[in-house]
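Example: Internalin-A.
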Amino acid sequence: MKMKAILSLLGLCLLSGCPDSNTSKTPDSKAKSTSAEESHSNKQTNEAVQPKPDAPEAVQAFKDLGATMKLSDDGRVLILDLKGSTAKDEDLKHLAGLPSLERLTIWGPDFTDTATEEISKKKNLWYLNMESTAIGDEGVKNLADLKNLQVLSLRATNITNDALKVVAEFPNLKDLDLRFNKEINDEGMPLIKGMKNLKVLKLQATQVTDEGMKNVAELPNLQRLNTWGRNISDKTLELLKDKNLVSLELDDTEISDEGLKHLKDMTNMEALHLRRDFVGDPGIANLQGMKKLQTLHLRDTVVTDEGMKYLSGLTELTYLDLDESMIGDKGLEQIKNMKKLQRLGLWGTETTDAGLKIISGLTNLTRLNLEGTKITDEGLDYLLPLKKLEYLNLSKTEITDEGLQKLTALKNLKELLLSFTQVTDKGVEKFKAAVPGCKVKR
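Written out as structure tokens, the predicted fold is:
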């Protein structure tokens, strides 16, 4: 058997021929050459992508102006915030010395259209906030080449619908803030309806009405919408009924209980604002299926204790605003299982000491507003299990020094409001000695 195997191998050698010593080395030589070339090429590539360092004089200039900066691990400025600084248009010439800048915030009337001439050169920017500046349409036109922008805030600027012609051409824009621009109206909405990547749109205090919302509803990937004012009614909710929204802000609008039925199938909703809307128990019955809801504002609505039963299953809530509503102790019974609540607003409600007993089980609360409620010193005992409380508003209640001293057990308190109570200066001083990290306002 072994002999047959040897003969077979010899036969294969004769058929294929013996390998030439020179040709056998050629592939290795080529491999080594190619490897060396690749190594050189990679070296060149690595050298090519090495980020340019910042100009020290530019960094120092912004520091001197009072700017806030955040740096990369190797010390390059990635985020520059000029809000609160003394910077003006002419100071933006120093942006040229920050080649890696990705996020920029300018703020205030000292920034005009001239500012955008320098900003337009920062091609790496993906975040640009120009809130409360004097920038108008001409300034926005200067930004046309910033194709990497994903977040743009033009809140409270001097823009009109013409600026939206440029904004609509930013291919990667996901978040657009147009709030407090009175020249933005329905005529501008057709310009942005084709923005395929836009997920967040803020329109509070513009002149956009139900009519303009027809175009907003066509945004294919809209997830978060902020609008506001008496120009918005149930018609808007009907237009939005098929959208997969996760956040909807509708404060101070003309919507009603009838309109809220269009939200019934929005089961992915995480935040809903209905402050100062004329909605009540029949309307919020449509919220029962919003099991992912984390933030709910019902301030100054006509929701009653009876309607609170529709909210009892919303156990993912972390922020519930019931300020200035008609809710009392009976209604609070329905929130006792909301164990994830961190913020609770009960300002001006019918809450009494009995309501505080219910709240005592919400041990993740960090902020609690009880201003103008009917609580007493006796009820404050129920707040003592709330060890995570950092903010507590007891203004316009009947609290006295006796009740205040009970609160010394809440060592994490950072802010305590006691305006128009019966607490005295002496009582405050005693409390501050026991909880020195807490700022007391009275």
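The first strand starts at residue 68 and ends at 71.
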